[in-house]
User: Fold these one by one.
Assistant:
Number 1:
Amino acid sequence: IYSQLLQSEQMAHIGEMAYIVAHEIRNPLGIIRSSAQYLVEDLKFNESSGEVLDFIISEADRLNQVVNNLLNFARFKPPTFTEVYIDELITQILDKWEQSSEHNPAVMITQTGSPGRMPIYADEEQLRQVFLNLIQNSEEAMPDGGKLNVDFSEDRKNDGVIVSVSDTGLGIPEDISQNVFKKFFTTKENGLGLGLAVCQQIIEAHNGTISFTSKPEKGTTVTVWLPRKPHSAVGGLV
């Protein structure tokens, strides 16, 4: 018990530090991005200058996502529950993703199954963050292209829905598979190791579960189970 209390106190200090550092970074980062965006729109710059500015904006956006992950982890907000049709939400996410510059055109994206036409009660923005992270991770595991599929199914027995995000990518080596949801663990060169930790934090706050299966060189499937009415939401539902 003492060890658990000590670890909780240490994590509280880390969270406080992360919150302060993230805020200190966010303000100048916003200025850098807006300044670069202003220069991009200035027609006096030639093509090579425009490429450099696009790179600055892209890196600023990447760092901003790191800051957001720090803030979300350090100051996690309980979900705000509203009616959400999970298949419609993910269709919107995929449509925007396929139109973004981060999407790899060599990756073919499909959707299968159905979660039923009853809504679940969830925090739409938090779920958007989870599934966007899973989609991005899947594509990053397929640098030379492949297939990404999002499958929906209804869990009538447990009154929930199941969403699986599968890819045909590199897979997760067995020696690191136990660490993928751990805070600050990452195999990415520029990663912070909070993406999947935040995803797990969000799903568990919805009284759901998140797990994965993976085979090296054959791909990974991440499975999210969500109740239609989370226990933490029931008191506020009509």
Number 2:
Amino acid sequence: MSRCVIIGGATIARYEDIKKYLRQGDFHIFCDNGLRHVEGLGVEPDLIIGDFDSHEAPELPVETIFLPRAKDDTDSVYAVKEALKRGFEDFLLLGVIGERIDHSLGNLSILLKLDSLGKRGLIVDDYSEMEIVSHSPALVGPEFPFFSLLNISGTARGITVENAKFPLEDSEIDCEYQYGVSNEPLPGMSARISVKEGRLLLVKVRRD
């Protein structure tokens, strides 16, 4: 099955960088004000979802799900749930990290939900990639000058980081002491990260 790309309404300033992540055959869900990114991303919606409190309701010949404004799910969360119902396993989220810290943190929790369901989720913004490290090891290539490991869910144990400026072996990171910020792959190498218990948010930084 194709990958589901969900586009939210947060600011995207570097369209040319973000467009490199798009693939032919992706299924594009635009959420409410995410419609402002149609031209910049150069893709057409396959599905539109929203309560349209931040963008006027579209009049396009595209499947559209109109949501009530009083609801538990944000437009982005609803979009993920809808995509899961349609059988998608792989998710790319764009325009979901921005000025609204509450929305940004809420959208990061989508990665936790997808991980718990055994699905792949990746958030990309103008500066970085974000994914969850849990059952399978993750690599950070030399094209990323920095990376951080953040705990946003309980306590992670048995953390090993290899081929990095600040290596770890069988370590622990909890939510109260985030000492995994701003590490670096060794020159010309890919850092390798594994976690035996729990989950970590891996942020791969493309640029300052």
Number 3:
Amino acid sequence: MLRVLDLLLLSLRSSLFGESIDSKSFATLSEQEWKALYRISVQQGLLAIVYDAIKQLSAECQPPRGIKLQWALGAEAIENRFKMQHKASSLLANLWAENGIQTVVMKGLAIGTYYPNPMHRECGDLDCFLTTGTMPISSDGYELGNQLCEQIGAKVERDYYKNSHIKYRGLMVENHCFFLPVRGRRSMKALERHLREVALRGNTDIVPNTKLIVPSADFNALFLTMHALNHFLSEGIKLRHILDWALLLKTEQDNINWKEFYKWADRMHMTRFADALTAISVKYLGLQITNPAIHTSSPYAERILNDTINNYEGLFNKGYSSWKSRFMQIKNKFSFAWKYHKIYQKSLLLELSKSIFAFIFERRPKL
């Protein structure tokens, strides 16, 4: 398995960071090892990206025909899904724009713009924040966006305080009223207000051929870290979370206010996690850091990488009911309590108590 992991990382360095790939490294792989490499690529959401590297191998070092065909079909399916998501997202953004609403994209299609081939970054849904663009931005376009979708026949569910769920042309949309899970947490509300201040600060971009806004690098640095940390604590993360961070730094490391970032990272107890993501990116993915303000080492890098490879649960993609999902999250938190003690540096029991209290007494939070 260690050999398969090494070749997975080599494939990622080749596809995403331009490292030349030596076909001989794959020459003696057995069929079972090829299957293991394929399987871990699927599990980590990296099938198409790894396939980009596999295609560069010499003919005699390619995987067995059946496995390669399966890989090619999987990569094609990911591309087709991207095209569907891109088209449906663009149609919605046009609809909202016609009614004075700007569509800010979180994760997904926005982070995909940092990838050499955006179509090969797997994306589950569209996470967006609808605003009229007044500064700092607010969710003043949230309910109008929901209503406009209902008028064109989309199904809208409003059963969660943080975002609605919109089903449109095969696309699942999370229309966010809040960027973050703010319920019952003063510090999270403070970070939410800051994210609203910086989302459209400075240079922003758009997803090509759409009206979907890619938020600022300062926003993406803080939001991606907090989002990944929340997943890390409740269900684990995939290598794709780490790749998102690595490619953000590759492109934007000199456009991020690192003094401001680390101030918020310390306040939100996510500095150790961010440092580990950067250290993994440098040591195992070949990320080049030239900005001296960025922390590039971490004593927790190997442990977090090992947890990423071996302990991802994927609770939010298994179709659990809301109550079963909550139960499984709590179970996971106790099973991997070291994440709270070593990385998050907070009391697990205290944090759970806050969550339960907020669920009962702050059903609809306000900033």
